[in-house]
Amino acid sequence: MEPISEMKKEKIIPIILCGGSGTRLWPLSRASFPKQYIALSSKCKFSLLQETILRISDLENIERPIFICNEQHRFLVAEQMREINIVPKDIILEPDSKNTCPAITLAALKANQKEPESILLVLSSDHLIGEKEKFLETLKDSIKIASKGKLVTFGIIPSSPETGYGYIKADQELIDKNIKCFKINKFIEKPNLTKAKKLIKDKNCTWNSGMFIFKTKEIIKEIQNFEPEILKNCKKSLNEGYKDLDFQRLNKDSFENCKACSFDVSIMEKTTKGVVMPLNVNWSDIGSWHSLWENEDKDKNGNFLSGNVFAYHVRNSYIRSDHRLIVANEIENLVVVETNDALLISQKDKTQNIKNIVGNLISNGYREAKEHRKIYRPWGNYTSIAEDKKWQVKRIEVKPGAQLSMQKHFHRAEHWVVVKGVAKVILENKESLLEENQSIFIPLGCKHRLSNPGKLKLVLIEVQSGNYLGEDDIIRFQDDYGRNSEIIK
Questions:
Q1: Reading across the β-sheet that carries 380-387, which strands appear in turn?
Q2: Res 485 pLDDT > 60
Q3: How far is C-alpha 204 from the chain's CA centre?
Q4: What's the rounded Cα separation, in Å, for the pair 102 and 219?
Q5: What residues contact residue 143 under an 8 Å CB cut-off, 6+ apart?
Q6: What burial class does residue 275 get, using C-beta atoms within 10 Å of its C-beta: 0-12 exposed, 13-18 middle, 19+ buried?
Q7: Beta carbons within 8 Å of 6's beta carbon, 6+ residues apart
Q8: Which CATH superfamily is domain 12-284 in?
Q9: How far apart are CA 489 and CA 477, in angstroms?
């Protein structure tokens, strides 16, 4: 390829893809709180999403990011960005997951409205990158290439015959370090182990990272060329959508008309402008407990132990306890993960099967397959402590200054006991302040509202009783978070 000259400094807009439920890392990662919002690695104090933003914060001409997430996780994205002092350019809410092509199309259209001469840096929100400075240097090179009209994707130099990644095959061996990027010969879907062993010997092949960089106008042209219906439906869903607090909502009917397809298949496999840049930065998408074990620092016996764990003659294992004591005796090559409502025990090299297992759990009605006992809300969180058919006990935390919606229930009554902080309660038209060890009863059918007027966290115990205890038993009359028509407490 021709040498790359210095180009004008276009603005770089990060596009962060936050979809996915991370089921391969169950029981820690679940649909209600997927892996991208968790500080999975012991080497990072921030969540994977926060790390994704922080590692590119020093990049020259970097703009505020655009996020694409599902509606359920919108407050998680907003809160985690607030924690690291990042103000998003936009948070686009997908009514349903349609894979990466519609998501990237939405972001490109949104960026084009504000910065048509920009360059888009598309990143997944759940990657680990060990060598940040080397990664940034590669990004700088890729920006120059994208400025010349190329669609750049990043291929990870493989270190093992992985079956959990797709592969990219370049048109020549990736051995000339003076060449920054290579033409793409083809994309290869996730292979079986036999094929993966062949691919790792092929000097033309890299793992497919799912990261991209290209000019905003250039990618819109290519989407128009190859997926005009997706472009049309995404435009319509944005134009007919509306702003809801900090979020960009879409017209659901228009977005539903988009087919679900990957950006690789729909665009990158068809374009003549695609190139792959080799990337060797200690990368992982943390797609399984085995890959997480590989990325952790281990003891002399090859173990990663976290939490309340006692190990006796244990080798090459990942053992994590969030609550109870785990005693491990004479085991090896296992993954053991304990949460407050589930326990996973698996052969370490079989953890790719967990996604299918979670699917079976969902089919059989296990609530633990999708939800944690601790559920996050914009005002705080609640944890289910104990329950039966006609009663349930929850621990509720309300952030300082936050309040729940004005609401009522048709099928349950509630009894609140304050254990920490001060609670302001509106029951019908009467306002009360409750301090520690004080309580109040909320009869069935009565309008009520709970808030925290103090500067410290409010903690209370809620006892529900009634014939039906589902979260959809709620009518909202007023809400600070735009949820008046939603079935979310």
A1: 374-377, 380-387, 391-398, 458-466, 412-420, 439-442
A2: no
A3: 31
A4: 12
A5: 10, 12, 119, 213
A6: buried
A7: 144
A8: Spore Coat Polysaccharide Biosynthesis Protein SpsA; Chain A (3.90.550.10)
A9: 12
For the chain, the C-alpha Rg in angstroms (whole number) is: 25
pLDDT above 60: residue 488: no
Determine the Cα angle at 91 with ends 114 and 144, to 5°.
50
Read off the tokens for 35: 């892996």
**Cα-to-chain-centroid distance, residue 134:** 24
Task: Answer yes or no: are the C-beta atoms of 286 and 292 closer than 8 Å.
Answer: yes
Nearest-CA neighbor of 145 among 1, 4, 254? Answer: 4
Which class is domain 374-478? mainly beta
**Which H or E element spans position 362?**
helix 354-363
Cα distances from 4 to residues 120, 140, 147, 324, in angstroms, run: 19, 12, 10, 57
- Rounding to the nearest 10 degrees, give the CA dihedral for residues 310, 312, 315, 319: -20
DSSP 129-155: ES-HHHHHHHHHHHHHHHHTT-EEEEE
| pLDDT, tens digit, 9 for 90 and up, residues 57-82 | 999 999 999 999 998 899 999 999 99
* The length of the chain, given as a count of residues: 489
Asked if 475 and 407 touch (Cβ cutoff 8 Å), the reply is: yes
pLDDT tens-digit series, residues 196-220 = 999 988 989 999 999 999 999 999 9
* Span 349-368, pLDDT tens digits: 999 899 999 999 999 999 99
Instruction: Please list the residues that pair with 320 across neighbouring strands.
Output: 306, 337
Domains in the chain: boundaries = 12-284, 289-359, 374-478
∠ Cα 307 31 267 (to 5°) = 120
Query: How far apart are the C-alpha atoms of 188 and 167, rounded to whole Å?
Result: 5
For 231, the 3-state DSSP assignment is: helix
Structure token digits, residue 268:
């990158």
* H-run or E-run covering 361: helix 354-363
**Which residue in this structure is represented by tokens 């296990």?**
366
- Helix (H) or strand (E) holding 111, with range, is helix 100-114
Cβ neighbours of 483 (radius 10 Å): 18
Residue 116: alpha-carbon gap to chain centroid: 27
Kindly state the DSSP code that residue 379 receives in the 8-state scheme.
Answer: T
The rounded distance, in Å, linking the Cα atoms of 453 and 250 is 34
Please give the model's pTM, rounded to 2 decimal places: 0.87
Q: Distance between CA atoms of 456 and 447, rounded to whole angstroms?
A: 26
Letter for the amino acid at 179?
A: I
CA distances from 21 to 69, 161, 182 (A): 11, 25, 33
